[in-house]
Please model this.
Amino acid sequence: MKPVLPLYAAGFVTAFGAHSVASSLGFLHTDLLTLGILLALYDGAEVLLKPILGSLADRIGPRPVLLAGLTAFAVASAAFTLVDNVAVARFGQGMAAAAFSPAAGAMVARLTPDNARGRAFGRYGAWKGLGYTAGPLLGGVLIHFGGFDVLFLTMAALAVIVAAWALRAVPNLEPLPRQRQTVADLAKRLSHKDFLRPTTALAASTAALATGVGFLPVKAADHGPIVTGAAVSLLAITAALIQPRVGKALDAGRITSTRPGILTAAAGFVAAAAIPGLAGTLVAAVLIGAGSGAVTPLAFAALANATPKERLGQTMGSAEVGRELGDAGGPLLTGGLAAVASLPVGLLALAAVIALTAW
Model:
């Protein structure tokens, strides 16, 4: 049994958990600013805790942080049936994901040879893509037939299964010896172009993905939750299919730049704003999925290759903050502008911001 497979599955859990709820919130809240805030809660919790918990994974080893995070995710998901509050449950899930997500990324890097990291992170991203795919589609089905209680209990069960799998299959990686690091040393490393460029690309691609999943269903809401869930799943499955191929091309030296992916994702929001109805949703889903999927393995592999192994948890946690800022900022920007102007204005504004990050 490959020890990285449960790590890929952990990526599936956080992606499924994030987007199965996000893609259906539009049916609970028609106020677009409120929708943007709810979409941002999960990621806001991750922004606060990922650097801290990523550093903890370096200090005590990533495996216990991974297992604790998956367990906490199961508890937060199941608690929804008691508190009946989406905001509280989402914040709790985000706190848990802040533990197991950077720990899983650090372990993928440590368990993979340097010349195979593109493929490893491509597969890791593909499993996340499967979560993004199943989330909107299965989430819509579960909510349609059983309500949000059934959806949150399903997420709890998934987290328990993956935690048990990881407990059995993932080896315990001891903390590596580390030189003392000052605040100035950390600031220097996190302000270097080798960190900033891939992190900015991740933020842009994640903003595209989160906003697409959250707001493309609003554009086609007249078709109902199952149809819109299936349409948004097209975005996620496109991203899932492209990531292993881009990772393989990276390992072969055929591709290195994230710019084409960023610009493709931006073009998806232009299409969403310009093409009416379900057709615009489908075209946008393909472009956003292809663009964001192309960026992810390139950026993560670049971060892993530029980081000392004993600091991988800290780097992945810090880089994930950039991703979560994009994940939260994209929906907030789009929702805020949509509330005061219109949804196409919000989508075009996000397209412009994403395109600027390519330079």
Observations:
- The first helix runs from residue 5 to 22.
